[in-house]
Fold this sequence. Notes:
3% helix, mainly beta, 55% strand
Amino acid sequence: MNAKLSALALAISAVVPAANAATTNTVTASPNQPETMVVQGADSSFTPGGEELVPAYLDGQIAHGGRLGMLGEQKAMDVPFNVIGYTSQLVQDQQAKTIADVVKNDAGVQAVQGYGNFAETYRIRGFKLDGDDMTMGGLSGVVPRQVVDTQMLERVEVFKGANALVNGAASSGVGGMINLEPKRAEDIPTTRIGVDYTGDSQVGGSLDVGRRFGDDNQWGARVNVLHREGETRIENDKRRTTLASLGLDYRGDRFRSSFDFGYQKKTFHGGEMGVGFAAISEVPDVPSNTKSTGQKWGYSNIENEFGMVKAEYDLTDSWTTYAGLGAQHAHEEGIYATPKLTNINGDATVGRLDTNRIIDSFSGMGGIRGNFDTGVVSHKVNIGYSAQVRSDATAWRMSNSKTNPTTNIYNNNGVTMPNYASTGGNYHDPLTTARNRTQGWLFSDTLGFFDDSLLFTAAARNQKVVIRNYSNSTGLETTTSSFTESRWMPTFGLVYKPWETLSLYANHTEALQPASNAPKEAKNFGQSIGIAHSKQDEVGVKIDYQRVGGSLSLFQITKPSGVLDSDQYYRMDGEQRNRGVELNVFGEPVLGLRLNGSTLWIDPEMTKTKGGLNDGNDAIGVSRFYAVLGAEYDIKPVDGLTATARVNHTGSQYADSANTKKLDSYTTLDLGMRYRMHLNQEQNDLVWRVGITNVTNEKYWSGVDDLGVYLYQGEPRTLKMSVSYDF
């Protein structure tokens, strides 16, 4: 594979002419770029509100800002919201392969495994964000399903808080949103070949080529290719990833456009999908972290085609119109086998659930933004419309729980796959089981006073959510689980900047979104349970001293929540209120020493439960304290050598609504080194990276799903190595 990738790179490099080099705000290191560089966001060429990315901070790993949906890219210091971006340079330096690897840098975001499958989901400020609901370039319904590889991404941006105003078409994410920005061709030509190894036997190869064309570099093309496969450190857990993406763009004087298309296929075989523990009264001991609790015959194949096209045109120097369209087709097929404990000694039954699921989604947005003055007051106005339509066709087959084979999670030698005993729909040609539509108008005006040192944002979104569920056997609509709701949702924000280095801010914002679907343990499995209206209030302070930046925020978010009732129906009968304090600090306080730290203190209170039985208890799966501290140090006696470290701490968390089951707290340590060599008279870079995650081989339960049904185990100590060559 190495030889093939090298040959392909050389061929492309020979055919594609190199573009003229020019100054750029990108964060990817050019061949002659030093390890630490100042590209701080004070760059006067950055224009907020559009497609141009917020300039990276200092060494290029973090951007103090990001995309606010339809409001475009914005510096964090100028908006009444909490937003931060992680760049492709951080992805490379940390050898981060999926979004979960990236958000480990932020205490406000926790990666959680999917509900009895291999999906990556996230909790932001204690509320779940489905991986499918992340946005790409501000558009919903584009991101590949369940697990997204980082090879094609320039930025992973995290928006904290209820975000229906800016991301109205997204389906979840009350606590926040993750936005992914694809790579674009840079002014400096890019040709990068990479090879990586992850224990136990995963080997991958990648190619990244970018060029700009035209007299003014107005045309750009970026191609990324990746293939990786092998066994993880967990026995019998085999994974394969194939990805290809193409990004084209044009930047003229008044017109700018882009087109992105990608293909991703992920295959999982024999891995862990969680351990069911609802039938026992306490949390069991953690089994070996290198022995799988899953079955060799369990698997999941997830194939995606996705793309988007975007454009913006400057009508005048002050007014710009913009539009975007995106789509994704996903096909998931798998056999899921999760052990369900019958006693504290680890005895468990092994069920079988076959799933054939086809999802198609389409989204779009468009609008006009501009600025003008009325006397001494400045105005930044945005009027837009966004919508997403999603259809879901699902069929399943399931074994009989009374005759399922048995195993023991502490001595799992594998069992014979049971036959399926019941079905839902035509497994080989599933009918449409759900259609959702989310749409709405956005109106916003940011008023600036006293030379824009005081900014007041008044905005509103008219949001409409339509949910239709259908029988998977007849295709007829299930009227008892179909919903429609629309309402105006206001947003108010205030930013006061007494100095350029300090911003005080406050906001009130709301969200109207489809609630989660019922889990497979419920009699209404797969059906949406309604429409959730959530609210957030937040105040905080941000700093940016060019060498050190950060934020401190206090927030409260309330959201209706799903409850699995005693009759085994999943209903939206509860409410969760999260109050918290969040602190982020990043930068380079001493030359050669870079820090990125964050903490989150949170009170995840259930304020409404069935019959008030569990009112006042902590929500399932949300710790009261999270902390992350990452550091890098350039070892100056050896030019190009950098040592890295990161500590992640998660406090204890309850695993049931009654708060009688509790997961212990845990702390993990990651260490690494990288060495950058300048070759060919310093025209090319060869970078070696080696890292060990979970150095102490901590054995722990990493989390639990929102219903307290499945426990998820943390990953064992793992070696990662990679080599990349830029030429």
